[in-house]
């Protein structure tokens, strides 16, 4: 009886095992059995060549008649054409610049071909079809069609060297020799949900007798992935809760109170509630592990700052980790500003501040000068800097804290669990720091439960009152060019009224590389024109529609002092218009800003647009946001922009954003690796499964934290961890 952890060589032979290892990274019996079919081809879908219609999606069994190769006339490159026949008709398969496929498509070979039917010069053709060639011993397509017609054929993720049918053969060999497999899902959990056992599910997913059996098996395998992952997350929550931490409580009359007095506004209900929740957790002898997510502009920064100050009050230090240098600098500036004199202990003597109330905010980034760095490190090591803001440079060995009690991570999907815990190692006497993770925009529940599943989740949903409306409009420049003229006119009016206007472009345009380091452009495509650039647009506006209006530019490659000066002139109103890249995306806070024009808006992601738009309507002045685009109507780009224009609800938009992204982008470093444990589960789609699996797994772990009663589950969890570990090491 073969086992999951056996090397494949023992079962399929060393030669085949080597190919499986080299081409598909499959090494063990378990690897192969978990290499699920991508889809299935069914009898009903087989079509005769004589009855094809244009635009139809078809799968045909046919024999290769001939293959020819030629160069293209007007472009560089080659065309490979193969003519196939099934006796009822002929069909041409065309491949551009894929001459190597000639090796697969040998005359006389029979195969399955799938694709969308088109016509070219009265010939039916499939451009770039999927195909699966049958083994050499299949020589009669009628026979082949008949033989395969009865079956549901699994189509595997395959490679040139190892076509799907060969993978299928190996899987069959393995399936025939495995016996009963220990099931990671506990029987009662499985039965209560009517899910098949593991052995049954693997058989049905690879060799379904009926397609419904395959779907049922997929559902079970999905549930299993969610359940195993949630078991691990539940265990992490439980073991974190058991670790020692130093309780940190704010001192009455200390920094938290001093900040509250300084704040120019009342805290919202949500800020108070979360603040109390966090404060209570900081005051326990076990580390807090909490996600703080919330609407753009909801005021997360002040919640985090109050938590940091509580720790400083209690004699500890707090670190704020930002994903980029620009963001670290912005955080440093805004915290220092919010704290005012409270951040100047030892720098100037202010009679109004008691000598014991106050701290310092240090900044550590990769690019700071050696001298500045040395000074910051000293402040941190001596504990003079109560708050330390930095990039991943903070994780380096050489940064020694005096006593770090709280780590705040400004997450944005960019830090993995590993980095989050790296700072934990820096605390004193074996205790763990408390951890607060912040997201820049709201994230859907399932993502929170998967990516941040080891954290408790707090949501800041209410916006501070008195926030003005922001009206958002899509401006299709190709259809309505005069709209843009009208937009520049409106910019002049806003400036004249004493308001501020942001104009955002996807690119810098200084000829030095392509864009802003942060400018994600999901729709990037080499064939399109280059996106609008800050420097070019600023020049055009100065000499044209905005002549006479003072205008500043801002982007990530300007020196820090130039950036500061530009922001200062903009904030003060000396220059009411700022043409910028996405450097303004996060953290910038100018309450008099009333208008934003986003050029080539389709180049930005939904959450990014939402975050950008969050820069206006922050005070009491109603805002207007224009999404300028040349994306044609009825495209998915326009749908995304319409979605942003249609709502200011970040949770709704985060769902739209999620649907647009690739799974790997969503899950980030922790789960997107080449050997991800999530093969079937889609965070976007499988909401109920994840929710249910989380509850079930939490219950199982609570009753049996060591999983002593569930050895198969324990092993599955270990496998997931080993994969994540391997991935992490690969990346490091
Ligand atoms: P985000 O949650 O997007 O990070 P910020 O923390 O940057 O939002 O806060 C947005 C703006 O709202 C800032 O100008 C901040 O000073 C202000 N703000 C925060 N809390 C309140 C409040 N309770 N009332 C009024 N304004 C507030
Ligand atoms: Mg923020």
From TrEMBL:
Keyword DNA damage: yes
Keyword Lyase found: no
Tree of life domain: Bacteria
Pfam families: DEAD, Helicase_C, RecG_dom3_C, RecG_wedge
PROSITE patterns for this protein: HELICASE_ATP_BIND_1, HELICASE_CTER
Molecular function via GO: ATP binding; DNA binding; DNA helicase activity; hydrolase activity
Residue span, Helicase C-terminal domain: 483-664
Domain Helicase ATP-binding: start-end pairs: 281-460
One GO term of the biological process aspect: DNA repair
Keywords of this entry: ATP-binding, DNA damage, DNA repair, DNA-binding, Helicase, Hydrolase, Nucleotide-binding
Family annotation (PANTHER family): ATP-DEPENDENT DNA HELICASE HOMOLOG RECG, CHLOROPLASTIC
Identification of the protein by name: Probable DNA 3'-5' helicase RecG
Species per Swiss-Prot/TrEMBL record: Jiangella asiatica
Top-level taxonomy: Bacteria, Bacillati, Actinomycetota, Actinomycetes, Jiangellales
């Amino acid at each position: 009886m073969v086992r999951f952890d056996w090397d494949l060589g023992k079962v399929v032979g060393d030669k085949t095992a080597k190919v499986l290892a080299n081409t598909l990274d499959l090494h063990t019996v378990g690897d192969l059995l978990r290499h699920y079919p991508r889809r299935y081809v069914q009898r009903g879908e087989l079509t005769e060549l004589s009855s094809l219609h244009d635009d139809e999606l078809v799968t045909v069994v046919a024999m290769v008649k001939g293959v020819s190769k030629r160069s293209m006339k007007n472009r560089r490159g080659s065309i490979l054409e193969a003519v196939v026949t099934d006796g009822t008709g002929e069909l041409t398969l065309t491949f551009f610049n894929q001459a190597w496929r000639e090796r697969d498509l040998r005359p006389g070979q029979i195969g399955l071909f799938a694709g969308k039917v088109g016509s070219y010069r009265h010939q039916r053709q499939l451009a770039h079809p999927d195909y699966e060639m049958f083994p050499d011993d299949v020589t009669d397509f009628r026979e082949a069609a008949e033989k395969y017609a009865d079956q549901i054929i699994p189509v595997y993720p395959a490679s040139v060297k190892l076509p799907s049918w060969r993978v299928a053969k190996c899987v069959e060999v393995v399936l025939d020799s495995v016996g009963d497999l220990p099931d990671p899902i506990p029987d009662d959990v499985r039965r209560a949900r009517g899910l098949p056992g593991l052995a049954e599910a693997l058989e049905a997913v690879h060799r379904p007798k009926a397609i419904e059996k395959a779907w049922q098996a997929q559902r079970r395998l999905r549930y299993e992935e969610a359940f195993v992952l949630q078991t691990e997350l539940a265990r992490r929550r439980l073991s974190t809760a058991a670790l020692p931490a130093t309780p940190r409580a704010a001192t009455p009359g200390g920094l938290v109170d001093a900040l509250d007095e300084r704040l120019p506004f009342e805290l919202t209900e949500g800020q108070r509630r979360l603040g109390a929740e966090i404060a209570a957790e900081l005051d326990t002898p076990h580390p807090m592990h909490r996600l703080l997510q919330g609407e753009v502009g909801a005021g997360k920064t002040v919640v985090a700052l109050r938590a940091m100050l509580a720790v400083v009050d209690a004699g500890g230090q707090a670190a704020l980790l930002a994903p980029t240098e620009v963001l670290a600098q912005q955080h440093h500036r805004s915290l220092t500003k919010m704290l005012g004199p409270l951040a100047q202990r030892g720098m100037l003597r202010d009679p109004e501040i008691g000598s014991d109330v106050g701290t310092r905010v240090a900044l550590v980034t990769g690019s700071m000068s050696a001298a500045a760095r040395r000074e910051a490190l000293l402040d941190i090591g001596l504990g003079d800097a109560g708050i330390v803001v930095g990039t991943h440079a903070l994780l380096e060995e050489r940064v020694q804290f005096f006593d770090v009690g709280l780590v705040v991570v400004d997450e944005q999907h960019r830090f993995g669990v590993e980095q989050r815990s790296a700072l934990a190692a820096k605390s004193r006497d074996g205790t763990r720091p408390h951890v607060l993770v912040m997201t820049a925009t709201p994230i859907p529940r399932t993502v929170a439960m998967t990516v941040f599943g080891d954290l408790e989740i707090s949501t800041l949903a209410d916006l501070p009152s008195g926030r003005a409306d922001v009206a958002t409009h899509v401006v299709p420049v190709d259809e309505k060019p005069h709209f843009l003229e009208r937009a520049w006119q409106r910019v002049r009016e806003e400036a004249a009224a004493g308001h501020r206007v942001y104009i955002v472009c996807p690119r810098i345009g200084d000829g030095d590389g392509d864009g802003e380091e942060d400018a994600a452009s999901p729709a990037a495509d080499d064939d399109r024109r280059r996106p609008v650039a800050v420097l070019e647009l600023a020049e055009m506006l100065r000499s044209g529609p905005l002549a006479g209006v003072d205008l500043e530019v801002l982007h990530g490659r300007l020196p820090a002092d130039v950036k500061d000066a530009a922001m200062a002139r903009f904030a003060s109103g000396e220059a009411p218009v700022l043409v910028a890249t996405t450097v303004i995306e996060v953290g910038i806070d100018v309450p008099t800003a009333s208008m934003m024009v986003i050029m080539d808006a389709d180049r930005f992601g939904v959450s990014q647009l939402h975050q950008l738009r969050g820069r206006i309507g922050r005070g009491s002045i109603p805002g207007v946001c224009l999404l300028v685009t040349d994306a044609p109507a009825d495209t998915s780009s326009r749908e995304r922009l319409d979605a942003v224009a249609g709502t200011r609800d970040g949770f709704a938009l985060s769902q739209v954003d999620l649907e647009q992204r690739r799974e790997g982008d969503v899950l980030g470093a922790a789960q997107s690796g080449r050997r991800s444990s999530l093969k079937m589960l889609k965070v976007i789609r499988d909401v109920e499964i994840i929710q249910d699996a989380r509850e079930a797994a939490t219950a199982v772990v609570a009753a049996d934290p060591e999983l002593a009663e569930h050895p198969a589950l324990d092993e599955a969890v270990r496998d997931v961890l080993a994969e994540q570990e391997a991935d992490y090491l690969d990346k490091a």
